[in-house]
Amino acid sequence: MSEDHRSVHATSGAVVTAPSADSAMCEPRPMRADAARNHEKILLAAEEIFALDGVTVPIDIVAERAGVGIGTLYRHFPTKEALYEEIVVTRLRGLIATADECAKNPDAQEGLCSFLREFAHQASEKHDLFDALGQAGIDIKVRFFDVLEELMVRIDVLRQRAVDAGRVRDDVATKDMLNLVMGTCHAAGQSGVDGANLQRLVDIILAGIKNPN
Amino acid sequence: MSEDHRSVHATSGAVVTAPSADSAMCEPRPMRADAARNHEKILLAAEEIFALDGVTVPIDIVAERAGVGIGTLYRHFPTKEALYEEIVVTRLRGLIATADECAKNPDAQEGLCSFLREFAHQASEKHDLFDALGQAGIDIKVRFFDVLEELMVRIDVLRQRAVDAGRVRDDVATKDMLNLVMGTCHAAGQSGVDGANLQRLVDIILAGIKNPN
Amino acid sequence: MSEDHRSVHATSGAVVTAPSADSAMCEPRPMRADAARNHEKILLAAEEIFALDGVTVPIDIVAERAGVGIGTLYRHFPTKEALYEEIVVTRLRGLIATADECAKNPDAQEGLCSFLREFAHQASEKHDLFDALGQAGIDIKVRFFDVLEELMVRIDVLRQRAVDAGRVRDDVATKDMLNLVMGTCHAAGQSGVDGANLQRLVDIILAGIKNPN
Amino acid sequence: MSEDHRSVHATSGAVVTAPSADSAMCEPRPMRADAARNHEKILLAAEEIFALDGVTVPIDIVAERAGVGIGTLYRHFPTKEALYEEIVVTRLRGLIATADECAKNPDAQEGLCSFLREFAHQASEKHDLFDALGQAGIDIKVRFFDVLEELMVRIDVLRQRAVDAGRVRDDVATKDMLNLVMGTCHAAGQSGVDGANLQRLVDIILAGIKNPN
DNA sequence: AATGAATGAGAATTCATTCAT
DNA sequence: AATGAATGAATTCTCATTCAT
Q: Facing residues of C210 across strands?
């Protein structure tokens, strides 16, 4: 009545080059041309829908929107949660890259600000990200945790630089900043605040954490 | 929580006694006493559980916690959403009262601050309120809207007084303030920030909207 | 994304006597008149269908056959497996009673034989029982295990008496007997052997375990 | 496993070369060599897995184990059931050969016994065979039926010889013997009885059918 | 001819809501 | 008026089979 067969389903298959008569310099995996497209379509659809309606949307809706059968969706992501995770992790990775970029800004304060603005921008339109981050403290998934941890570290670099430059209060933790910005964006996003107004809100927060020396 | 409503009952129907042949010898229905008690018990249980586990808890759990049958629950609230609504509306009414109270504070700035702190306090422990408010912009229910509108007006009084007293920037809308505080509380609440730390976050926001001149 | 609410669902509710104006000597639980009937209907339907088609039949079929909705079925049995278990356990209990009865037979050999015949009789028409017993060694469920253990003990009493009376070989374990009878019945049942012929098969087995002294 | 068959392919279709303009310079298709190898690999994998985990294993697992794609598997066997059938039929053919061999034994009794022992031996480790045979009476497939019939005939030869030699009761049908041995093996196999003990069970059955005169 | 991606009809289970007692 | 049993649509996920590459 309860079995389990079936070895773990790898999300990204082995990279095989076509074994037959093909010449030298071809890309490393010409295989699965349209499978890759489907993967992308699913990801895209899921992003849109999760961002719009939250993570509670039935998964068939996602499949339908992606234009594939549910079976296909499940071939690419073994679980609804896995799909969700992939989206969030991808987005977190993007934010890490953004943070790294901002860390190169010679003006420490400017670096922090531009990061938070970009962060806010993404946050405002992607509910799912924030549902995820918001729940991070509660229902932590390992994969999440690692990337989130990583992101925190990067943001902390930005914050510390700004503190060292005397521009930001030293009693504000990175987590505080995230809660402020993230939460505000969440609320703003849901009550339909547009981008420009959102930036104003971020500016208020920035003013709040400014060193009042 | 956001789809079709088949029943059209008002949330709290007027309590009608059977209109036919009954006026003579029947008791005047003091039964309403313990019906009222049930109403209260349900409300209390729902508050606790929604606040604790979010609005996704199955409604039987609420009934069980309240110590009544589901049937009874449904007699009092025609819909899960109606129950939910009643809680939020009640709480909003409480906040309106708080706002009125704070408006009596001779120090305008102090009035605003103490309101926002109380607001944050409630928010930090009651997820449901803010799930609700957060979604208010999207899935507006008429009853919500009215009370929310009302609350906004009261907060605006506080804000305006502080602005007039030169203590708060005049380019910050009431709605902005709500988004900032509410969103932050939401995020903080979900990541398990305690009351003291939450007050620090509110203080940061207050610093951010302070008139810098 | 993954919650759990909901306290464990007891299969048999608390036994409550009607609290209102009812007289002295009423049965202990006049409540749930038709719920009990449904429970029975489900059990009956499941027995028939499992016995006929094996345990792989979709559960809606069982519900349909019982004339109830699936929801109802699940109210009575929290799991398909639980339903299955209940049937098997009930039947095993019946066999235990039979064994006890047979143990009263003054003729030890006769006691054993009549038990095995009854056993075979039930086995031949109830596939599920034997699917269950057959798998007992593999996918043991605790509840099964206990009752099965119990049954084995009772059968062993019968066997031992017959051995002591010099009628049965002493090198045949109870488990051996069960495998022989059960297995044969399973095969016979599936190939459509009728009751009379089945008894002949049992007699062959009995002949095989007879003490050849 | 027991419903509609949409495709109507024969289980092992004749291998046809394209009938059009091709006779001249094309190779004579020695390709069938490795196609045959695949056929064998699939059969082997299926045997192992079905015997180990029963016939409910998803077919992809079989393909994976065989080291071929599902597509390939389906090219060789139009249906899961067809694959299953082929295995059983092959095994039945093996048993027919064994029976023929045993029929050469000058000692009739010995011939029957050694056949049944070999039969039991195979049965004990190959669940699938007996799941299949067990269900043969219910869900008969034509191909099965023929081979099974054939096997019965051969066993009957063995039985009759033993009866004629006065060693075996004449009121035991071949089918009875099969039910006894097969069923016992099934049960024993599932409850994890090892080979030696299984032989003991077979001996009990043999004792049971021995001519008692 | 081989591959494995796509498909979609089920299957088990949950939960808001209705209804008989 | 209260109870909790019944209901069934909706949801997640599986797996035999088909089809494009």
A: C168
Residues 6+ apart with CB under 8 A from C50: C57, C62, C84, C87, C127, C128
Residues 43-62 of C with CB under 7 A from strand E: 58-60
Asked if C5's CB is within 8 angstroms of B58's CB, the reply is yes
Structure tokens belonging to residue C49: 């269908």
D71 contacts D84 by C-beta, under 8 angstroms: no
pTM for the model = 0.82
Strand F: positions under 7 A of a protein C-beta atom: 1-21
Separation between Cα atoms, residue B126 and residue B120, nearest integer Å: 10
Could you give all domains of chain D from N- to C-terminal order, each with its CATH number? Answer: 32-78 (1.10.10.60), 86-209 (1.10.357)
Per-residue pLDDT of D19-28, as tens digits, reads: 444 444 555 4
Instruction: List strand E contacts in A 1-30 (CB < 7 A).
Output: 13, 16
Residue A80 contacts strand F, CB under 7 A: yes
Nearest residue of C to residue B54 by CA position?
C3
Distance between CA atoms of residues B153 and B159, nearest Å:
10
Residue C22 confidence (pLDDT): 44
Question: Mean pLDDT, 10 residues at a time, over chain B (213 residues)?
Answer: 38 40 48 82 92 86 96 95 89 92 96 93 70 47 79 94 95 92 82 84 95 81
Chains B and D touch (3+ CB pairs under 8 A): no
**How many angstroms separate the CA atoms of B211 and B171, rounded?**
10
Distance A55 CA to E7 C1' (A): 25
3-state secondary structure C119-186: HHHHHHHCHHHHHHHHHCCCCCCHHHHHHHHHHHHHHHHHHHHHHHCCCECCCCCHHHHHHHHHHHHH
Side chain identity at residue C174, one-letter code: T
D78 touches strand F (CB under 7 A): yes
* D94-120: burial string, b at 16+ Cβ within 10 Å, e else: ebbebbeebbebeebbebbbbbbbbbb
Q: For residues D188 and D175, give the distance between their C-alpha atoms in angstroms, rounded to a whole number.
A: 19
pLDDT tens digits, residue range B1-35?
Answer: 333 333 334 333 333 344 444 444 555 455 567 88
Cβ A73 vs Cβ A57: under 8 Å: no
With contact defined as 3+ CB pairs under 8 Å, the chains touching B are: A, C
CA distance A50 to chain B (A): 15
Contact D192, C138 (CB under 8 A): yes
CA B189 – C1' F13 distance (Å)?
Answer: 33
Contacts of D169 (CB under 8 A, 6+ apart): D163, D209, D210, D211, D212
The H-or-E segment that residue D143 falls in is: helix D142-164
Q: How many CB atoms lie within 10 A of CB D10?
A: 9
* Interval D61-79: pLDDT, tens: 999 999 999 999 999 999 9
